[in-house]
Specification:
185 residues; alpha+beta; 3 domains; 5-stranded antiparallel sheet; two-stranded antiparallel ribbon; 8 helices; 7 strands; disordered C terminus
Length: 185
């Protein structure tokens, strides 16, 4: 069983990867009735960070590279695959490499400033399970699919799609049809 002393050591590792407000909440949790959960969580997250690959360790793996950390804020997500290599000239964690999806747009690979993420209120996902980039970017199945007639019409082009949408709107909400036509055309 981990102790508060173990959690204190873990905080030294986490400090570069987690914002002050989130860290304060976790510290408060370590003083609550659920303290053991929070102590264990701090130690678990520190172990994940210590074991993470460093810059270029996953180079060439493509979508098989594993994202070990996940940050989120206001509809944006950042998945971290590699952390900075610390050197005598540049101690500490400044940036990382990973996948970023801003406001739900298509994710892109690149360097991510951990410092800027934390300064702007991004939170470290404490419940993240490491996944490959392929698993992250594959369709989740949560997005609504097009109605079958609309999907078929979409393949035929804009005019067919507008006509199929007109028919769908006419069935669902006839009074909305004049507004819909102005939007669609």
């Amino acid at each position: 069983m981990k102790t508060i002393k173990d959690a204190t050591k873990a905080v030294d590792t986490l400090r570069q990867f987690i914002g002050d407000s989130q860290l304060q909440c976790l510290a408060q949790g370590c003083r609550s009735e659920e303290r053991q959960y929070f102590i264990d969580k701090l130690c678990e997250m520190a172990a994940v960070i210590q074991a993470m690959p460093k810059t270029y360790d996953q180079d060439g793996l493509g979508d098989k590279a594993v994202a070990h950390l996940h940050y989120f804020s206001s509809g944006c997500d950042w998945w971290i695959t590699e952390k900075d290599k610390e050197t005598a000239d540049s101690p500490g964690q400044h940036q990382a490499f990973g996948l970023a999806s801003l406001n739900g747009d298509y994710p892109e690979l690149g360097y991510i400033s951990i410092v800027e993420l934390l300064e702007n209120g991004a939170e470290l996902d404490l419940h993240w399970t490491p996944q490959t980039l392929a698993e992250i970017t594959e369709p989740s199945g949560h997005a609504p699919e097009l109605d079958p007639p609309l999907a078929a019409a979409a393949k035929l082009g804009r005019a067919a799609l507008v006509e199929a949408a007109d028919n769908a709107v006419a069935l669902a909400a006839p009074s909305f049809l004049p507004s819909w036509r102005r939007i669609a055309l």
